[in-house]
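User:
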Amino acid sequence: MTVIDDQGRPEPPIAANEIETLVGFLEFHRATFEWKCAGLDAAGLSATTASSSMTLGGMMKHLALVEDSWFSERLLGNEPGAEWIDVDWNADYDWDWHSAADDSPERLRQVWADAVTHSRACVAAALERDGLDTLAVTALADGTHVSLRWMLVHMIEEYARHNGHADLLREAIDGETGE
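Assistant: Predicted structure:
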């Protein structure tokens, strides 16, 4: 049974197998990020703090890209999603961060939610194939093929790091704090 906390996040299982633990922590961090972005309008999603140009909207689009890049493109060997296929990354390596200012809050939330939904399906397909030992179809620049296990841990780290940024941004926007 999944326990849901006061913010609507699924608590990671206390005593579970490796797959359930890794996926549980990733889902917890995804839900934490969603909570930090909830209810904000375009101004809130475009707000910055201190000397950083980072925004929650940019972070939302970046995390959508990272979800798609790791779980669909690298893990399964799929082409980039429609959102990313025509981007000239050489012209703007941080396009995901910058272009978010042109998107409505609804569009940003949908792009991120769609990426997460697609990633869940990609992970499920890989788990059926070879479990956590499934190797990425697409190699890293050095020629190595990381495992699904490695990707899940990497994505937990990615969300945990950005959730820290999201905490600071959200507090600066409207004073909301928590975890």
